[in-house]
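Blinded run. Sample ID left blank on purpose so nobody reads anything into the name before looking at the predicted structure. Input follows.
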Amino acid sequence: MFSIGFHEFGHFMWARRFGMRVPQFMVGFGPTVWSRRRGETEYGVKAIPLGGYIRIVGMIPPAEEGESKRATRMRKFIAEVRGQALNDIRPGDENRVFYGKPWWQRVIVMFAGPFHNLVLAVVFFAIVLTAVGTNVYTTRLSSVPACVLPAGAATAADKNACDEQRQSVRPKPVGQHEGQPGTQDDGTKTGSEFSALRGWRSAVHRGLSKSRG
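Blinded prediction complete.
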């Protein structure tokens, strides 16, 4: 409704500025829902909001001299429309009819409606692009997950899967391989390793004692 009224207001504003008489300014078609007359113009809203119109006096000029009088269906229709348009002309409207104005004023009046639609589109796009914004694609990551689990991990479905994964992984000394004899998985020495170390020390001590004797 607003865009329709804004479109018709473009025609209306320039027609009034150039001194044309505008008896009606209507938004919509069909039966009149509401109307009010201010000055010489009736403003109103009609039941079907699929368009609108303004009625400018003298939109259709009188028949020219020498025009063919042959009766055809189209000529009859034009004659009826011309007769209704001429009925709107009152005494004193000779200089206020549409067809009596210079050609450039008529062009401005007819172009003003579509131009208002263009202005409205620019305003709407400016609001959307500046106030709402658009999606901008970038290669920069907005966040990095704390941990990434394989799809088939046993703890993948748990709520605290990352915490469980950290607890299950124990650090090993540098150079220590999993399953190496003499150490546990956490890198601590076993009892057998301590026994072997004590035996090696005793053998070294005996060898040194014999060499001195």
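Unblinding after everyone has recorded impressions. The first strand starts at residue 24 and ends at 38.
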